[in-house]
Amino acid sequence: MSLKKCSLAISLLIWFSCWASAEEPKTMQLSAERIKQAMERFVRAPHPMASPEQKKLTQEIKQGLQKDAWDVQVQKFSVTVPNTNHERLGGNDKKADPTKAVEGENIVAISKGSERCMLLIGGHYDTKFFRNAKFVGANDGGSSTVAMQELAHVISQIKKQDKAKSGNGRWLDCSIGLVFFDGEEAYLPEWSDGERLLGLQDNIYGSRAFAAKLEKKFEGITYQGLPIKAAIIIDMIGHKNQNLFISKGSHPQLSQTLLAQKTSTIISASNGPMDDDHIPFAQLGIPFLHIIDWTNLAEWHTPQDTTAIISNQKIAEFGDMLLRFLKQKR
Asked: Could you name the CATH architecture of 29-326?
């Protein structure tokens, strides 16, 4: 080949490469390294609802979401919870009331879409209260939280480079609402102890408070005036032996669409019912997906729920599966 022809070929190759990268932006993926960093912050100390550590974490998550250009609000709510200082509830204060009022804080982050619809993605970010144990909840609370933080980062990047594709009826064209629920965990040892001992529902405080603020309009259940088309609730997704299930009651078509996104993530439909933050949405008739790993329970609600049992890579891969779902048509 002559030098002149070689130069022409190189020029054409460079032009084609630039054209291709402009037409086909690099696929955005979740970063296991950023997830690791977020997880290290999450497990720094226990942070049950209304604790000083939870208040600190709330502000840190909020600031991170704002850096990724999300519209962030902290939804404060007041609830009555068991008073664990009461003698009958494990404390040693004979004069204490059996219940007390506390303030929880849901974090709600919105990325505006090009179409009139809302998709909610939620998970809890509190850790369970233990009197005599250090429980940092790397999987139970941490995994959903860091996945959503990283989703926020990647979705913001996708929307910057993806404007030309908007308006195609994809989930990604809806406004996306990331909801970090406070107070999913029960204050008392068991999920049903509040009902049994106090006649009080002692769990999913934040998701119940969020659902109570939703409005019913002609278009259906709405948030910020937009009809909610679906809610995806995730919990305990980060175990190194990750084995995810879509729980009973989840919307069949949504389930099929998610399962069709082939990745290395192990996930299947389950016939088992589950109580979690999806319940308030189910009660309102909002189509939902509830995704959880209910097989790796050796460390669940024990001090061993630490980063030692977590695979940041598997959290990232599951997040990539959700991103593929978001790019599907509704």
From this structure: 3-Layer(aba) Sandwich (3.40)
